[in-house]
Amino acid sequence: MTQMTEHSLMLPPERTRTLALASAFLRGVAAAGLGLGSLAVLVTLFWISSPYPDSGPGGALRAAAAVWLLAHGAELVRPDTLSGVPAPVGVVPLLLVVGPVWLTHRAARDAAEPEEGRRRPSQSGAFCAVTAGYLLVAAGAAAYARGGSLRVVPDTLAFPVALVVAGAAAAGVWTAAGRPFGPLPSWSPLVLQEAVARTLFRNRAEVACRAAAVGTAVLIGGGALLVAVALGRNAEAAQESFLALSGDWSGRLAVLLLAVSLVPNAALWGAAYGLGPGFALGTGATATPLGLTGTPAVPHFPLLAAAPDQGPATPLNWAALAVPAVAALALAWCAVRRAAPADAPRAQAWSPRETALVTGLAALGCGAGTALLTAVAGGPLGSGALGAFGPVWWLAGPVALVWTAGIGVPAALLLRLWRLRERGWAWRRDADAPEGAEDAQGVEDAEDDEGVRGGADGIGADAVPAAGEAGKPRRRWAPWRTGVPRDSAVQEGPDGSAVGGTAPAGGTPTDDPGFEPYDFLPTDPWHEKETREARWASLKRGSGGLMAEFPAHIPAALRSEEASGQPTNAQPTDAEPADGQSTDAQPVDADGRGATP
């Protein structure tokens, strides 16, 4: 038995391409099944705890499948209505979208990430396999939900459900590849391929994307703040609507979870309100900072209690316009941090044209992101008065672009000028300064910083390393600097005039026209005989007895000086031949090899 076990065939560590693709496919199926199963368990618990369930367990599971597809952006339809006309449900709770997107992203990343000892599919293969496995489960869930109270519109399975899944899978594959920026495919324009290949273009694009993300995040955060303030003012109305929707604890818990999942939607509604276009409360009412016009068709829901009252707006409503202004300033600050960095020379800063261009591209990205998010934050809730509910994306996006570009670009140029001003920014130096010239004020700042830290650590000022020996000196903002050197050695000349100049740490005046830093030789007795013999003895001890018994070699120049009668510290050893004599022993260099005299 042992012999058979020892000689049994072992499977190779690398899997074939077919098995790798099958594994990626199963990862997509598992990701979809995990998300659908989690939501089905939650819905089943609410159905079990409900004292008056409307349907059996099959209806609860079909409703869970429909809500899971709604989290991917699918549009649902309620066929059973009082009017007999099917009512659409197009408002997607954005917090529910996080789960499916994260699961798809993780499945694609794990499928495409290289693993030691195992073969992985190509990036395109991993993307297609994970997407196909996930969409297969989505198609089965849509077919299963057809007999429930909420049915899926078939057209929305291709857009946006398939688009959301493919985007999340592509992001996972891109993450596994290290998030590279380029090269672009061969079918893209040649001009764009050449631009992406340049490092300068990639740096500018990275700054623009980061600034756009910061501006969008500040805009959404400001909208969430507006909603929180409005809910605080109308807390009693929100509480009444919450208690009126359900009388048992399971129903109230379900309403609470639904309200929490709609919090990102409310934040985007608040952002659209602050931008100016506002949001629609039905087909005949619009809420803007100037007031609420029309007759709103608002159902009973806690978050809708934050809607403004009918009539003209007050100065408190006008204060919502500060949200896009703050977002534009945050976008400009994020762009200027790279356009005029604090620790770079003045000549390395971006030009005003580059700063304005990158800030404008960031504003364009902020407008596009705002339009996309507001498009998914709203939707229809019926076929009548609730056919339009939420912000209008084709108005919110352009208005966000106008706000961020109109305020962000001038603010970025002004911030650039302020950060590049000479007075008050002690570390600013010109990159075109002559070689060897030192910035006295920058050295002074470095000495101050090192001296403070040295005094705190118990080290005196003599322990401060000179600039250039310990690397780049630390610089900090010092608006109180006036450009006057701290240590000035002023002496009185024969005619009574003041002479002298600033003395740095080394003691040499920098005003001396003949002064050049580091133009002196070391003063240590490096070439003396005793020093050479000490180094030679240290090498012999460190060799462990492998060195031959040769004395330290004295250069011929020193021997010639001694023979000519000039004073020198190096003396010939007993083993060295005198002038005119020869010996078979050759002198040895410091590294133990023979040297030719």
The shape, in one word, is extended
Average pLDDT rating:
77
Residue share in helices? 40-55%
Radius of gyration: 38 Å
Can you describe this structure in just a few lines?
The protein is mainly alpha-helical and 597 residues long. Helix content is 52%, strand content 6%.
What does this structure look like?
The protein is mainly alpha-helical and about 600 residues long. About 50% of the residues lie in helices and about 5% in strands. The protein contains 18 helices and 10 strands. The protein has helices at about 1-5, 15-50, 55-70, 95-110, 125-145, 155-175, 190-195, 200-235, 235-245, 250-260, 265-275, 315-320, 320-340, 350-375, 395-420, 440-455, 530-545, 555-565; strands at about 75-80, 85-90, 150, 280, 285-290, 290-295, 310, 390, 490, 500. α2 packs across α3, α11 crosses α14 and α13 (about 320-340) crosses α14. It is extended, with a radius of gyration of 38 Å. The two termini are about 75 Å apart.
